Amino acid sequence: MLVALGFLMVATFMALIMTKRMTPLLALIIVPTVFGLFAGAGLGLGDMVMDAVKSMSGTAALLMFAIMYFGIMIDVGLFDKLVDGILKLVGNDPAKVVMGTALLTGLISLDGDGSTTFIVVTAALLPIYLRLGMSPVVLTCVAGLTNGTLNIVPWGGPTARAAAALHVDASDVFVPMIPALAIGLVVVFGFAWAMGISERKRLQREDPLRWGPGSVMAGGTSGTGDSASTKTPAGGRGVALLEKVAVRGDGTETATMNGTVLDPTRETLRPKLFWFNLSMTVAIFVLLILDLMPLSYLFMIGTAVALLVNFPKISDQAKMIASHASSVIAVVSMVLAAAVLTGVLSGTGMVDAMSAWLVEVIPTSMGPYLAILTGIISIPATFFMSNDAFYFGILPVLTEAGAHYGIPAVDMARASITGQPVHMQSPLVPAILLLVSMAKVDLGDHHKKVLWRALVVSLVMLCVGVLVGAIGIG
């Protein structure tokens, strides 16, 4: 009963948001509440949810102050030079922009923190996507895929959890999986290039005057001043206020950031404080990596200092806080709403029942292939439940069963981390909620584009792990 309710609850939630019958925020609250009542939780639902809210309060605080901090850094001009460098590298070619998205995400993902990665990537690249008329869903898809693939680094959560749960060394889990990670990244970059080419063709098809051969966006320099070049980009993506092309005195045209969040004439710019803001941001990242204090408190301090130094007047500080209020509310409310789903899953016993069922349905004849099965199971399991529930609940049971067939615990651990590209797209992951909220992308639209690609990457990593001997057969 609990198994059926658990899977049906998650399926109902996914169906509602992907068909846009309900917003993710409402679905996260209403769907678990209804299924929790069916499970017989009654008035106990309140305690279940509040326990989950308490466990997520640190994450909510982190996201709140991280959004404010990086929002302030964008306002004062810290990322302008970074974006300018990326623009010079990728130009106006959508394919190169998407590849740049994968590269930047990969580099920042090495810190092991998805939330920070998505904040920086979105802040740096979303204005470029909007200026060129590209779909922000492509940004979230590529960023989510890249970060999910790199989520298996040993200082990341999944590998550390697997190592701790099975009492093996994290480096022993990760190092043999490097070939699988490398091939997985190749697949991700292949997807990125294909999506970039698709975006380029779409823009050329929908707005040939702006993107056709010889036009300014395609690399031409003989701007004619045609009014079509300054119209809203095809597809009606809600960026009509963005000034995409500037006309020089000699009649030629050039791309500009005017009208975007990186407008070079905005009043909040603080060029004289660039080195201070850069030093403070670098210091925060160093402290983040050294793990000397809680991240939420770290960003609280950073936000306070950034406001005090860049905007000494109290009235200006209030304006800056208010300017980022909508972004904060959108993300924090989603995180707290996700606590309803996780609270009901764990409080009603659905997670435990689902775990036990997964173990029971594996036939004895499949015992020697239990490591491979573990990798396959990790794909839906880590999407439907938290990493903690899978690695500390399901994985030890599967590993114990695998031991009877001579499968080492470390092989089981390696197989278990191959589902991370799919896991990172789960609505139970606060970082992905942050990504889609900052990019103003519907979670259902994100899932339509990313889930099948993430599944391919996970299966490729699993297959490569088996081929190179990192994941053995009993």
- Provide a count of the helices: 22
Averaged pLDDT: 79
The neighbouring-strand order within the major sheet is: 1-2
Which value, in Å, is the CA radius of gyration? 24 Å
Please give a structural write-up.
This protein is 69% helix and 1% strand. It is mainly α and 474 residues long. Strand 1 (245-247) and strand 2 form a beta hairpin. Helix 3 runs antiparallel to helix 15, helix 12 runs antiparallel to helix 13 and helix 15 runs antiparallel to helix 21.
Layout of helices and strands:
Elements: H1 2-18, H2 24-38, H3 45-76, H4 80-90, H5 94-109, H6 114-132, H7 136-149, H8 157-166, H9 170-174, H10 178-206, H11 208-211, E1 245-247, E2 253-255, H12 274-290, H13 295-310, H14 314-323, H15 325-347, H16 350-360, H17 370-384, H18 387-403, H19 409-416, H20 420-423, H21 430-438, H22 443-467
Antiparallel strand pairs: 1-2
Concise summary:
This protein is mainly alpha-helical and 474 residues long.
Offer a few descriptive terms.
two-stranded antiparallel ribbon, mainly alpha, 474 residues, 22 helices, single chain
